[in-house]
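Could someone model uracil with this protein?
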Amino acid sequence: MSELFLPQELIRKKRDGISLSDPEIGYMVQGITDGSLTDAQLGAFAMAVFKCGMTMDERVNLTRHMMNSGETLNWDQHNLDGPVVDKHSTGGVGDKISLMLAPIVASCGGYVPMISGRGLGHTGGTLDKLESIPGYDATPDNSVFQSLVKKIGCAIIGQTASLAPADQRLYATRDVTATVESIDLITASILSKKLASGLDALVMDIKTGNGAFASDYKMAQELAQSIANVSSNSGVPTSCLITDMDQVLGHSVGNAIEVVECIDFLKNPNNADHRLLELTIELSAYMLQLSGLASDLQTARIKSMNALESGKAASIFGKMITELGGPSDLLERPEKHLKPMPVITPIRSNSSGYISEIDARAIGLSMIHLKAGRTKSSDAIDHGVGLSNIVSKGQWVSKGDPIAMAHCRDQKQLDYLQLEFPSLIKLDEKEPQLPNLIKEVFKSNQDLKS
Ligand code: URA
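Reply:
Sure, complex below.
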């Protein structure tokens, strides 16, 4: 029947606000994948969806066709003795949680096949952080990836070309046609990739605040509701947590520097930044509860904390690094492999007061300026530069106190950060009200699939 469809007619239909049927969406996704839809048609289609929106049925169908545009992982022949569960974040500044979370959930009996992305725009990417580890192979083939997940309980790798290829082309087009900020397209984009890895349950961390891509709270709510509904309709129980991204998560931004923070976290969880610890444990608790590994959230929190404090999560992290080609003594001697920068200098406050605002987005952009982040996906990045010891909201600082530690290649980079960074931190003589870290939770109605 597909030969009866014409791309321009389906674009016209969507442009005029008429719903597309399942076969019509399937035809468009086929054209995106095999290249028969031109770039111009794809851009026009994305804009028609952006402007006119999609019904829930259309979103579910678009997600399913995009998921099936490439390989999907099947776990049946692996005879796993626990659920396959994952977390995805919409991206933030200093968001390094995946590196600790996957080993924690694996320690508690879950299997976590985590396919992560590179940073784009002001947000950092898990994959870039992992690639700062010498030897780490982030692109093993699917069979190696699946056997590692079975053997260790988790593996974090990059997206392969075989997974949801329709999304790769559509996303690249959206990026250059001002059609990224569409709830319909974001839902299908995220879920097509996540659901292709054969999950039993999914937890979404939807960030909101000045460092988030959904800076507007209403947009974060709409996205959470949309993702919970579509994944539920696709048979995967999902919880979406809306979480605060109005400041850097943890104390560091960069790549190698964030890996060092993760290693410290895994080795000494009780010394970790309290927001980083709270969110990691909360996301883990939702993953355990949703996938049936804990009867309730409180039990799940205790299990997650035990996995950290017993050192089990650290040991699984170490195994994952070694199995993927990284150094076997990374946990013991991180400084040997994640080499300190030649210039490490405190940045000092120009005045005194409580930290009342932190412009996380601008901090992320400053990392792009230093080449720790990229403006287009083909850019090479510098894994070494960044900031550590970044202050938190509500903290008191006196004039001259350090507000961060700059890790730079040279004096020019340091001069830039010393001028720029203090202007991104606002002080107030009144102690500010601190926002809730977890603002709201949206759940799908679906029970764990049998
Ligand atoms: N992340 C994705 O993978 N896709 C989007 O559309 C937006 C964020």
